[in-house]
Every structure is written in structure tokens, then in C-alpha cells.
């Protein structure tokens, strides 16, 4: 359930990217679409930067044995 909002932003970013591709540069919404795309990409990048160190610390290499601490 916690992943749903991030997934929604990811899908919206893809839609913005496609919309920007099909919007002429002379259209008044073009700069606004560029700003919206930049903001959503920066948001997703910041989330990824926060998650990557945690993900790496939780990664188990092949053949490595984890001994639970009791």
C-alpha cells in the first residue's frame, strides 16, 4: 500500500513525458509541461536516492548465510 502513491507519480511522469513529446514548442502549455515533468522526475530521483542505500544494506549476496541474532 505504501508503494501505490509512488507508482502513481511514476505513471504520471510517463504520461507527462509522452504529452510533452506531442505538444508543439509554440504551445502555451509546453513550458508548464516541462516544469511539471522536471518536478516529478526530481521527486522520483530523491526517493530513489533515499531508498538505494537501504536496499543495498539489505541485499544478500548469493551463497551468503544470514544468522539471526536472538
From TrEMBL:
GO cellular component: membrane
Entries under PROSITE patterns matching the protein: DH_2
Lineage per the UniProt record: Eukaryota, Metazoa, Chordata, Craniata, Vertebrata
InterPro entries documented for this protein: Abr/Bcr, DBL_dom_sf, DH_dom
A single GO molecular function term of this UniProt record: GTPase activator activity
Protein name stated in the entry: BCR protein
Pfam families named in the record: RhoGEF
DH domain segment(s): 1-50
Amino acid at each position: 500500500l505504501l508503494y501505490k502513491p509512488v507508482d502513481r507519480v511514476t505513471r504520471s511522469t510517463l504520461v507527462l513525458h509522452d504529452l510533452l513529446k506531442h505538444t508543439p514548442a509554440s504551445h502555451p502549455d509546453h513550458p508548464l509541461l516541462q516544469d511539471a515533468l522536471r518536478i516529478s522526475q526530481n521527486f522520483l530521483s530523491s526517493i530513489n536516492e533515499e531508498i538505494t542505500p537501504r536496499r543495498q544494506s539489505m541485499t544478500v549476496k548469493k551463497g551468503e548465510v544470514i544468522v539471526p541474532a536472538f
